[in-house]
Design goal:
By secondary structure, the chain is of the alpha/beta class. The chain has eleven helices and twelve strands. Pfam families: ECH_1.
């Protein structure tokens, strides 16, 4: 096994003589909440795996108790990243200045960091497996849904609380009807309820459910089975299934739902006179309270 030292928010390693790459979300102290830095490093890690001809399968895993608490909306780092002109992608700048209103900044940032990234990872030229334990909340679903296969620990729980907490239809990569089915998607989005690993397996979202203590080893065994398949055959399977989904409207539905999501941001900004930092509502899940009996309310000036 070859390990690559990386003290930052995402780590990368190769196993089985380089046939398997494993990418770790490495912010366990923050419940792997997704800062902009984490997403940039994750994109770089996926790109590294794609460029390596030896890699056949990529595992996306996460350190710590929970897979991910979703977007990082609660840390000082997240607020600094969302500040106008701070650490933004070059396309967010016009004549040397930050573009437009809160609504426009939100649109441009979320298109780049959330939508473009996730759709690109879905089409990665490798077979990808998400390895999920604990809570996978809101934007965590975007990461795992971009993968070809999902395996879960028996303590895994999946939810999207964006609709009930922030007035959006759901996260930016809106695969809910495809992953849950139409009526179950409505139920989960309208209530904010979570489903466990067994129910996710019954719905077909999760391929395998393993005991938490065995998750890492069993996922690696599963990845090895996939890696034994001829590379060309694996990619033809992936492309054929993805193309079938797209022919049924998946890709167009994603784009449409992203714009509806941004309309929700625009409504929020208009009704709150742009008082809140981009993407931050006064009552949102906070990774610092994850697992507490009640989500903390954030008091804004």
């Amino acid at each position: 096994m070859q390990r690559v030292a990386n003290p930052e928010q995402v780590t990368y390693e190769t196993l089985d003589d380089g046939r398997i790459a494993r990418i770790w979300l490495n912010r366990p102290e923050a419940q792997n909440a997704q800062s902009r830095t984490l997403l940039v490093q994750l994109d770089e890690a996926f790109g590294r795996a794609e460029a390596d001809d030896d890699v056949r399968v990529v595992i996306l895993a996460a350190r710590g108790k929970n897979f991910s608490a979703g977007h990082d909306l609660g840390s000082e780092e997240a607020l600094a990243e969302r500040a106008p002109g701070a650490g933004q992608h070059p396309t967010f700048r016009f004549n040397g200045a930050t573009r437009g209103s809160v609504t426009e900044r939100t649109y441009l940032q979320e298109w780049h960091y959330f939508f473009e990234n996730t759709t690109r990872w879905r089409d990665l030229r490798k077979i990808t497996i998400a390895q999920v334990q604990g809570n996978a909340i809101s934007a965590a679903l975007m990461l795992i849904w971009a993968c070809d296969l999902i395996v879960a620990a028996d303590d895994a729980r999946f939810s999207d609380v964006v609709a009930v907490r922030m007035g959006m239809p759901g996260v930016e990569y809106y695969a809910h009807p495809w992953e849950f089915g139409a009526r179950k998607a409505k139920e989960l989005l309208l209530t904010g309820d979570a489903i466990d690993a067994d129910e996710a397996h019954r719905l077909g979202m999760v391929s395998k459910v393993f005991a938490r203590a065995e998750l890492e080893d069993k996922t690696l065994e599963f990845a090895r089975r996939i890696a034994e398949r001829p590379t060309m055959a694996a990619l033809l399977v992936k492309d054929s299934v993805n193309a079938a989904s797209d022919a049924m409207g998946f890709a167009e539905a994603l784009r449409h739902a992203f714009h509806i999501h941004e309309l929700g941001h625009a409504h929020w900004a208009a009704t709150n006179e742009n008082r809140y930092p981009v993407g931050l509502a006064p009552d949102v899940p906070d990774w610092r309270t994850l697992g507490a009996p009640k989500l903390a309310r954030r008091d804004e000036p």
